[in-house]
Amino acid sequence: MDASVKSFKRKELGMKIFRACFLTVTVLFVLFPLYWMFITSLKGERELFANVQTFFPREITWQYYFDPVNGIFGANSPFLSFFINSMIVSFVSMVLCLVIGSYAAYALARFKMKNNRNEKLSFLILTARMLPPIVVVIPMYLIMQNIGLLNTLWSMLIVYIGFNLPFVIWMLKAFFEEIPVELEESAMVDGSSRMRAYHSIILPLVIPGFVATSIFTVILTWNEFLFAMFLLNSTDKMTLPAGISTFITQYQTNWGALCAAATVSVIPVLFFSLLVQKHLVKGMTLGAVKG
């Protein structure tokens, strides 16, 4: 008995050590590129182009951030313009996607059609998101050119809403299906309209789902590069992914400024994720189980 208990404890201890080692390696593997990007932005030019690279900067410098000439926050740098454009496009497209997508998702979750057409229609909507962006980038360029929206943030909003809306509808539909229909039926029996029951009873219960969906939407929009590169061609309209690519020219690559800009661009998404982390966990678990 004692031998079997000791054997079980040894196996349990071995599994704990294995899990700890596996998680440590995974975290290091994920975070190392971010760490390398950050320390590269703090290295001086001589250390940056040395034959032997160091894991810790010998001399920390903030010249690629705050230098008046070469820094990304310098007077002549367009980085702040890139940053503001990305904030506008990401936030506005996220809000509009959630507002429009929530009504569509609610309708698909509650109003059942014959022959299981709800599921077929949901899948049909999701197929729009499966299209590779490279397939539609030229048609989108021609459309925006013809309607006079080329090189404007409006074109980016239209494209991002169109591409993210199927994903939002698909995610929110699963969250609405988790809410018992009896809740809104009870409200309607008491005299409430369906829309009032939706706004006052259903929406507060689906907030974790909205948070989870908003994070994915923001990340998809914030990191999008292809459409931003094709549809925006002036630096005062570019978003961060397209703008940061301008640090790479045919003559040289400004690695220090590039890494500094990439480091700063990570902060808003990271801050937003930490801010809504509590609701994010609830949202992921709410949409993962069907009753």
Automatic annotation (TrEMBL):
Matches recorded under Pfam families: BPD_transp_1
Record-level GO cellular component terms: plasma membrane
Compartment(s) of residence: Cell membrane
UniProt superkingdom: Bacteria
KW GTP-binding (keyword) present: no
Membrane topology: Multi-pass membrane protein
Gene3D superfamilies in the record: MetI-like
Stretches that traverse the bilayer: 20-39, 82-109, 121-142, 154-176, 197-222, 255-276
CDD domains: TM_PBP2 (cd06261)
This protein's UniProt keywords: Cell membrane, Membrane, Transmembrane, Transmembrane helix, Transport
Entry keyword Membrane: yes
All copies of domain ABC transmembrane type-1, residue ranges: 83-276
GO biological process, one term: transmembrane transport
UniProt family annotation: Belongs to the binding-protein-dependent transport system permease family.
PANTHER family membership: INNER MEMBRANE ABC TRANSPORTER PERMEASE PROTEIN YCJP (PTHR32243:SF18), MALTOSE TRANSPORT SYSTEM PERMEASE-RELATED (PTHR32243)
Full protein name: Carbohydrate ABC transporter membrane protein 2, CUT1 family
